[in-house]
Fold:
Amino acid sequence: MARHQNIRNLDYEAELEEYGAFSDEEEEELSPEDQVRMREGTAQVLEALGVEAHKVPKTQIEESLWHYYWDVDKTITYLISKYIDPPKKPAKTAPPKTAPKQDAAIASASRQSFAHLFRDLPWGNIPPERQAVLIPPPQLPAGLLGGSGAPPKMSKLQQLAAARKKKAEEKSASGEVEQTQVKMTELTVNDNQASKENRPLAGVFGKRVKISETTAQGRIPLTMAEPTRPEIPQAQAPEATPSQHQEEDPIDPEPAVAPPKAQPSAFASTLFGPSSDSPKRRPREVFALPYMAISSYSPDAFGKPSPDDVVLAAQAKVATAGKKSANVHNKKGSSSADGVTNQVSQLKIDDTPLPKSRNLNVLSEFEKQKGKKTASFVVVGHVDAGKSTMMGRLLLDLNVVDQRTVDKLRKEAEKIGKTSFALAWVLDQRHEERSRGVTIDIATNRFETETTSFTILDAPGHRDFIPNMIAGASQADFAILVIDASTGAFESGLKGQTREHSLLIRSMGVSRIIVAVNKLDTVNWSQERFDEITHQVSGFLTATGFQPKNIAFVPVSGLHGDNLVRKSTDPAASWYTGKTLVEELEASEPSARALAKPLRMTISEVMRTPQSSISITGRIDAGSLQMGDALLVQPSGEKAYVKSLQVDDGEPADWAVAGQNVVLHLSNIDPIHVRVGDIVCDPAKPIQCVDTFTLKALAFDILMPMQVDVHRGRLHAAGKIEAIDAILDKVTGKVTKKKPMIVKPGTVSRVRVTLHSKVPLEAGQRVVLRSGGQTVAAGLLE
Amino acid sequence: MRFTNPKHSLSTLDPSGESPVSLLPTTPEDMWHAHNLIAPSDLLRAHAIRKVVTTGSTGSTTSDRVHTDLTIRVQSVFFDPAASSLHVSGTVCQENQYVSLGQHHTLDLELNRPFQLWKHSGWDSVSLKMLEEAVAEDTGEAMCAVVMQEGLANICLITEFQTVVKQRVEANIPKKRAGGSASQGGMTSFYEKTLATLLRTVDFSQPRPLLLASPGFVAQDFRGYMQSEGQKRTDKKLQRMAKDAVVVHSSTGYVHSLNEVLKSPEVQATMRDKRFTGETALMDQLYDRLRKDDGRAWYGAKPVERAVKEGAVGRGGGVLLINNKFFRSLDIKTRKRFVALVDKVKEDGGEARVLSSDHESGQRLDALGGIAAILTYPIYDLDEDEVEEGGEGEESGAAAEEGAMII
Ligand SMILES: Nc1nc2c(ncn2[C@@H]2O[C@H](COP(=O)(O)OP(=O)(O)OP(=O)(O)O)[C@@H](O)[C@H]2O)c(=O)[nH]1
Ligand SMILES: [Mg+2]
Structure:
């Protein structure tokens, strides 16, 4: 007991002095009841902490239990608040996870050297003084205390039994195919390592036996793997493949149940196979190569393999395919993302194929390809301006959806008394959206004209859903601003989201805007009304910073389709001779693509598809990618591989570039590490995660140090304006006032923002600050 | 919290702090009060469990846990809001049979066990006010608020003095796909998760006010979900909860949206008498003043101290807002400075409010540096010398490079 108190209370020495007669070991003793309670308590705590348990050093658990006098609940709360709190999203906690594990593994590895000293002793009867002498003090920080660890009198047999039981439970609990795959792939690896004569047994026991052999034969490829490790990004190394990672979780709490003070005795080893902790840990270290598991994920070979398939295939793979693929890799030129691959295959450890990469030069492929240009546009405007209806009509008139579908929707809409929303329902597909007649989230849709293939991003107009609108606008090349021309509606819209949306899209870098003056059928196509609106809106758009040449006005009726695809046939509308909406769209140039920059893509959707249990969609903001590429997901810092991908309208493709909307089917990553709003980037040039940044911001409202929500595309995070460093001149950027108390609307200032959690952000990105449901500022990260 | 001796009261208190005050915490919230009262260098006497090792006649040793009372000189105070527990560490300053002088010990204050406190530098006006609040009648149940948005729910308990985030629920909601059923399922499982967490983390055995807040329809739908779950499970209590729950609009699901929640008419109507609604209103008033930039609202220690010194925070609307964290673990000199500030404002006839940093309005004040004031008359140059700091040269150079300005 004393040891953990020792750590906490520095009076340990004093105590020793005071009770000078007592030696270290005697201090260790807990009364037998206390031992039992400690053991039970620890188990309970670990169980309650679940996967988070690894964050809490065991000593701390015991310490707290003692401290709270075995009150498990209190202990848990304390531990959570101390170690796990502030409750972070699991994905975020991933990177720190690796470090302690490694430490522990190292610690346990070094501890092994003492093991032989115990071989001659009957297990469970090691004189305490021998333990005490043999455990070197520097190992303490590893979190796993040696001989004098808390439950000193717990027999090893009990420990092993407990550990095995726990493990067995966990294993049986997760009977998923993935799990099986994991095991199988591991076996594959082992087949490479150890000779094949030991047919792998499935399950825990089998694995243990195998590992022991690996160890015994001294075929620990640790030395081989070691040199590659520096090449693999740090966070990656210990748990590079999700398969291994998945496996770690269940095992993780185990050492806590069985304190790894030393190697089990020879007797225990004979009985149960090798010890339950250190040797088993080691293989994870050893095979920390990201490529092992991939063979079974190879998309064409196994769309969805049954466990049996996996076994057979994995064996076959190792025998034949492995060598070949290694050679192939060696020959290939090194595209940046494959750097690691090559390193590894040179070492001839990686005998399993990666997702097929053709190692294309994506940019030259892209130039070669002479297709239509692609462009995305966001449809914005005040609530009920008719955005969704207009897009529904557009899709209908372009024959992207057929009349039958719309008729069906109309019938359904009629049933709940929302007939007028039938066209909007083409895009508003969610139950809540339909029953309430309001768009909640971005709907994407596609259509093609002769020259361009367009992606529609239909944004919600309601102010509550502006975060979603921001997400949509961040993916757009240009915008359609829909304005309700009917009496009164225009005016209230101008006060509402017509203005806020315009400010937002402008400050997010959209410079081209097409204003669709809608519902002109309700005012009998009054040219006067159109002119009035045109006048007012262009005044305020130019004030917002749009250049007049980038603003276009089209009088339309979204409901009836006038001037969308076809010129209006209504005689009352004959005064208009300009372009239709689609013609205006075609006349718009998409913004320049940052093709040569490092890869960046914000995840706008995570889903499960037949191709992969984890598929993501989004628009590539910068750079390019291809099949087989390694990707880094931030903020989790986990690596994934592109198993296959689809571009734009779902065409399977080998590569994709900035500006394209893609579906990426990922492999080798646990879904908990991938969330909407996360950023996928190039592992060689990753985006950093920050929790504080400075921003050159244009204020839309009074700014002062205050709580704000930070939005960047789908990503949003809570934080606060920590300080206002200076007010800047709008044009020259010169400091006009330092440390102002407040910033007035319309002024540019440099503000410092801190966030509650780390998020991926980098200089040059545009973010929006909102507070109390209002957009208060937007600006550029410095 | 109450005085252990019923005969004691605020008026019998020894302001020098030399004789102890003996207090009995009776509710978890009292731990928070104790957290405010106990400061470094104070003396604290409370029940402790100490481990003692004895040697038997055979030379074997046994370790026993003994119950004893210990007096320590406080060095640090750790408060765990989620568990409402308070750990006070320091060195033993009164020897007994189990401990010797100078040994380190951490006292864990316990409910329904008295503790004695000697204030090292006496009871000043701020600590007296805190004690007064501590021993005042408990004004009622903590209110539970669930602030949510699609895929995120923060379950909070709002008591008189603090807002405790009990649990954060997150769910990945699949976005829309053709058919639309996926998302519906996603929301339902999000509601399911939220409800389960709510019932697990908050005790509803006694009815307590429940607020559901969100942008859009999330809160409303969640309430609907509670209702239908209540019917499905034929759980009368859940049905009741759903029926009594108040749905409020908030702009996000983050905890700081509680500000909007607390000032919504729905909440004002039911919780008018709660202290925190008043504080929320004061903070709003401050922000409004700051917006007007009329020289009557200032934040940050320096300008506020100047304004107080000039007597600008006095009779006729002067308000000093200061976070209680200023009075917690400060060195005595700094503490005295802020206590003097409070006293001066009171003397001038102004209102001095010590806000709880553990409340949303306190958090808002925190963003402003934890201290702000509304002045009775405008002063414009309180931040003058701060403007002077720093060199301009480097700035203009950088700006020239950047050329065209953003946005
Ligand atoms: N008369 C007439 N009504 C229209 C026209 N366009 C849309 N509407 C009606 O306006 C209402 C709102 O249409 P929506 O398409 O849902 O509006 P929205 O802008 O998508 O709304 P949110 O997405 O919720 O912001 C529906 O009842 C439509 O029938 C039009 O050109 N003429
Ligand atoms: Mg809509």
